[in-house]
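Repro:
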Amino acid sequence: MLDTGDTAPAVTARNQNGTEIDVEFEAPTVVYFYPKDFTGGCTIEANEFEDALPAYRDAGVDVYGVSMDDAESHAGFADEEGLSFDLLADPDGEVARSFGLDTDEGYTDRRTFLFADGEVVATYDPELSDPSGHAREVLADAEERLER
């Protein structure tokens, strides 16, 4: 799994609108992986990132959610939950594997990565706790670590 100081992988994937997105990691960026659209913990986590999105944008931090669901599933999930950030479809697990995550079960564990200047600044394992509060924890850490 990617760790602090590792170089960001090249990431190109379709979002919930079917648009191909090339993630740039020079700007501060959060990439969070979640197991599946429409599930309890994943819905909590997505809504919390959405609620905190204005603060992320004010801090200059981009946010991407990634799961092994396809773009159509992401479109339904984003629509139902009112999500305005990009959900990247990774049905073959290529993006997850580039981060060093296991895809053998057809999904990934919940993991979050914070990047700046093309490198991993921090990693998070929200599996160890309730996903409630995770987005705010990452935001506070990003603001502290990335103070200019």
